[in-house]
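User: Reviewer 2 asked us to show a designed sequence for the structure in our supplementary figure. I'm pasting the structure tokens here. Could you produce the per-position amino acids so we can include them in the response letter?
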């Protein structure tokens, strides 16, 4: 089968096309015939804990048709249409762990389904599972046009919370407003705390999601409401260190936590998937929210899709159509 591998060369992540055998499911796994897969910045850009070694078969999420079912998997059958966090989604066939399999909502296209699992589950962990965002609260997202940022904005809508997002592009903010963003702040700099407090009547954000990195961390702390929760998700700026005002954290009872799949256990992944399926997936199935696809590329155009991501031009997810 055809596949694309992510290979580290000279501190750069490159894509290499290779022919490899069709994978076979181990106990607890399924293999799908991939219809579409989505790009994720964490696996395509070297740095921190996110890359996972000098080379690997790319593609962390996929949607497709069940091709083979491993021993012990009883909730899906060959021919079922599914989606989920995957191993090797940049290929004709990919492996999904049984506890990561989600049934594809009939209303979604293959491309929309492929754009759902990783960004939405990551956003769910940041905003709901650990962030505990509730109705009437305020959520702040830096770099809000990224896939996880758009998903966070949509999740806030589902729970009845209000959202603030930062972006260096007025055009992106306008698109995010259509999707459901309540307040857009036009900036790429760590200078937004005053605007956040203005929007929230002086209180600050109850939950903040850092998709940019260390350069934004001190300003995010300054933007939090008392008992605010701050999720560290991404490092677009490649800054992995930041100053921290311990007195502010101490006095205001802030909570700071990370959301990463790099060292997540199988049970942690399963728990997040179950929570997303219970709390958010029904809103996708009903049409209350719809995964946002920025652009679709053919499979052989995957390097061009990576270049589109490197240009930071997207709002939502970049998807490759496999079949």
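Assistant: Here is a per-position design you can include in the supplement:
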């Amino acid at each position: 089968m055809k596949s694309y591998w992510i290979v580290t060369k000279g501190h750069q992540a490159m894509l290499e096309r290779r022919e490899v055998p069709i994978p076979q499911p181990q106990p607890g796994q399924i293999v799908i015939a991939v219809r579409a897969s989505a790009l994720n910045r964490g696996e395509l850009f070297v740095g921190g804990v996110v890359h996972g070694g000098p080379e690997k078969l790319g593609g962390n999420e996929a949607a497709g048709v069940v091709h083979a079912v491993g021993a012990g998997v009883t909730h899906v059958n060959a021919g079922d249409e599914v989606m989920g966090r995957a191993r090797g989604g940049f290929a004709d066939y990919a492996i999904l762990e049984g506890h990561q399999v989600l049934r594809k909502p009939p209303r979604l296209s293959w491309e929309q389904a492929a754009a759902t699992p990783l960004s939405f589950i990551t956003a769910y962990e940041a905003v709901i599972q650990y962030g505990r965002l509730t109705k009437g609260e305020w959520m702040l997202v830096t770099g809000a046009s990224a896939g996880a940022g758009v998903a966070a904005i949509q999740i806030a809508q589902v729970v009845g919370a209000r959202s603030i997002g930062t972006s260096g592009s007025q055009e992106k903010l306008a698109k995010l407003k259509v999707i459901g963003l309540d307040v857009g702040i036009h900036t790429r700099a760590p200078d937004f705390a005053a605007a956040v407090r203005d929007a929230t009547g002086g209180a600050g954000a109850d939950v903040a999601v850092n998709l940019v990195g260390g350069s934004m961390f001190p300003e995010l702390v300054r933007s939090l409401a008392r008992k605010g929760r701050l999720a560290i998700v991404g490092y677009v700026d490649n800054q992995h260190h930041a100053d921290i005002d311990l007195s502010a954290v101490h006095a205001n009872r802030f909570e700071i936590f990370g959301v990463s799949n790099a060292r997540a256990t199988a049970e942690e992944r399963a728990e997040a998937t179950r929570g997303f399926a219970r709390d958010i997936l029904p809103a996708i199935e009903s049409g209350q929210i719809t995964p946002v696809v920025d652009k679709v590329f053919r499979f052989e155009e995957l390097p061009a899709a990576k270049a589109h991501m490197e240009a930071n031009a997207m709002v939502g997810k970049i998807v490759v159509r496999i079949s």
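For the response letter, you might also mention the following. The chain has two domains: 2-116+291-321, 120-258. The chain has a mean pLDDT of 95.
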